[in-house]
Amino acid sequence: MAWDVACLGISGLKVDLLHGHILQYRGKSTYKACKVKAPALKDQIIQSLRQQGFSVRNGNVHPPTGLTKDKIRKLHETAVLHRRGEAKSGLHKQETRLLARIASGKDVIPSKIKPRLVEVLRGTDDELLFRYASLHWSIPVSSGYGRRLRFLVIDESNEKLIGLIGLGDPVFSLKPRDNWIEWDSQTRRNNLKYIMDAFVLGAVPPYSFLLCGKLVAMLAASNEVRDAFRKKYQGSESLIKRQPYDGRLAMITTTSALGRSSVYNRLKYDGRLLYHRAGFTRGSGEFHFTNGLYKAITAFAVKHCIPTAKQESWGTGFRNRREIIKKCLPAVGLSPEWLYHGIEREVFLVPLAGNCNEFLCGKHVRLCGYDLPVSEIYHHFRERWLIPKSFRDDRYKAWRPDEWVLWPTEERNDG
Predict the structure, then answer these.
(1) Could you give the C-alpha distances from 355 to 191, 251, 272, in angstroms and in order?
(2) Three-state secondary structure call for residue 177
(3) 241 burial class (0-12, 13-18, 19+ CB within 10 angstroms)?
(4) Which of 141, 160, 187, 295 has its CA 20 to 30 A from that of 133?
(5) Partners of residue 118 on adjacent β-strands
(6) Are residues 164 and 152 in contact, defined by beta-carbon separation less than 8 angstroms?
(7) Chain centroid to CA 232
């Protein structure tokens, strides 16, 4: 049976700001007819997985054996390159200007570094820089969904970029997190709004050579981040429950990109552990389907699959990317278990209050937040990590922004 695929993307999405669900799909996108048979999509999916480095045996997907960090980077490479390709039309002409905001080694004087958090606003050069810098991550970076709060960490001594913080809505069910908090299903449903997930968290070179990934991770827990979150979301109302939100943030979660993390592990402030290890994910996700086939998968699901959401308040569309893929796979003759790619990620939790668990479990009404100003965090980081590292390792001095070029000059001048 032949069917039409929307090859040029989709629009008409409505999202619940407090829960990150896709409420409605209206399909008002530009369509380019691509006559494709369902078995052909199945074959393309299998071929794509094998090209990325997965093996398909006995109806199951398997990652390579002996996963090292380099092997994990290799598995993500196709999806990363695809994201860069999608971003090229909007960013390649801006690359020279954006690179001017990246420091060279000679711009960095460790003793004079002074971090400042800059909230990223839509439609600004800061947003372009955030998007551009995130394209250099070794795994594909999502744009976040639902509630979203993004920051540039800027060095006031030279106005160059130190790193990125991106917070978005957490996944509804995450076993290591839920077990650590000791949630039951109803309490989780009520209080998940008090948690955000760091979907981007890290330093860029040359600051990354000076362990500034630890600084950025610590700054995510700062008073300034919580204040910006409260200012943005206090008084907002869930589209589903129609209940106002008080803007309190009790916890941040994140997962390590490449297995076990050396950045978050044993990261302390004032003798207190900031990032708590909670376990590992099952190795599920959709990055291995977001490499050029996702639009075809989405178009197929929209035309042939029925969304799970049944309540009128949830709208008529698919909730998220995962549901779209999970619906499409069995419809073309593949197992929905192929969402489990087998690459486990370590889960870290950042409590932002001394009574975080009691609050999230509904035992306390008041949230007793920690006092973590950016200035104090940086002073601790400077003495504990930055200055000692600058004496031991001077590789940062050799860094040049042109090492970050994604599109050569001749490509940036095209069109």
Answers:
(1) 14, 11, 14
(2) helix
(3) middle
(4) 295
(5) 152
(6) yes
(7) 19
Q: How far is CA 272 from CA 65, 201, 350, 351, in A?
A: 37, 20, 11, 11
Residue spans of beta strands (DSSP E) within 169-271: 195-203, 251-255, 268-269
Pairing of the two strands 346-351 and 195-203: unpaired
Distance, C-alpha 180 to centroid of its chain? 22
What are 4's strand-pairing partners?
A: 35
d(CA 225, CA 210): 23
Contacts of residue 77, Cβ cutoff 8 Å, sequence gap at least 6: 52
How many C-beta neighbours within 10 Å does residue 71 have?
Answer: 17
The encoded tokens of residue 258 equal 């490449």
Distance CA(119)–CA(127), nearest Å, equals 9
Domain boundaries, the chain: 1-66+288-341, 67-283+344-412
Strands 268-269 and 251-255: unpaired
The answer to whether the CB of 402 falls within 8 A of the CB of 408 is no
- Cα 88 to Cα 37, 292, 367, distances in angstroms: 30, 14, 44
**For residue range 86-131, what is the model confidence (pLDDT) as tens digits?**
889 999 999 999 999 999 999 999 999 999 999 999 999 999 999 9
Q: What would the pLDDT profile of 37-66 be if each residue is shown by its tens digit?
A: 577 788 888 888 887 778 787 777 777 777
As a whole number of angstroms, the distance between CA 318 and CA 22 comes to: 6
Q: What is the mean pLDDT of the chain?
A: 82
Task: Put the strands of the sheet holding 251-255 in their side by side order.
Answer: 115-119, 148-155, 160-168, 195-203, 251-255, 346-351, 276-280
